[in-house]
Amino acid sequence: MLTGELAAAKSREALRIALGNMRQSFNYDFVSLLRIPSEQEKILGPLIHESTLPQAFLRDFDRGQMLTHCPVSIKVRRSMLPISWTVDDLKGPGSKQPVVELCDLMGRHGLSSGVIISFFLSDGHRYGLRFDGARSALTQSEINELSMLSLQALEVFGHITMSRDAQHNPLSARELEVVSWTAQGKTSVEIGQILTLSDHTVNAYLTNAIRKLDCVNRTQLVAKALRLKLIA
């Protein structure tokens, strides 16, 4: 059933619904689709394409630049295999303070266990599906099934993304949202308050948008976005 639903998904909304059904089928509470971060990247927000994680968690995660110290991110960069974890595993004896703070944050939001499955797509980037919640560890059979579904879901995402780019709209929905608020004269701090994001994350979205539209600053970015009718 999930395989057929993914095969029929031709839009981001249809994919979003299918990801939600995958999450429910495997008894997880949250699902995220993201680009796997490099060692140089410190902010998670701009890497996320779809997520049901609590906005407060994402805000505090980026505000503390926890991506730098996140054991899961480090493991994912080093291996193509599915990576599963529990907070108890991450918060072992002798854990450094940033890891302890991360585990405490995850615990407050009910993210006591999870798994991330990643693959390279045709654009050369590596993407992953991350599932979080409070369930027990997946069996090997469940990991195998979820891996096959994740590959299919990420391939669908790749096709949808390429189709969107072909329509000359290179900015993500969140980037467009941030640029739109910038055009209305809002500062990064104000935009962060409106969207429940850290100002670091807002600035990262703006930096990505500036790069994608080949601009040099926010003023030029807003002007070009208006000229291209990406924002109203």
From TrEMBL:
GO terms for molecular function: DNA binding. SUPFAM superfamilies: C-terminal effector domain of the bipartite response regulators, Pheromone-binding domain of LuxR-like quorum-sensing transcription factors. InterPro entries: Sig_transdc_resp-reg_C-effctor, TF_LuxR_autoind-bd_dom, TF_LuxR_autoind-bd_dom_sf, Tscrpt_reg_LuxR_C, WH-like_DNA-bd_sf. Keywords: DNA-binding, Transcription, Transcription regulation. The keyword Transcription regulation applies. Residues 164-229 form the HTH luxR-type domain. GO terms for biological process: regulation of DNA-templated transcription. PROSITE patterns: HTH_LUXR_1, HTH_LUXR_2. This is DNA-binding CsgD family transcriptional regulator. It comes from Gellertiella hungarica.
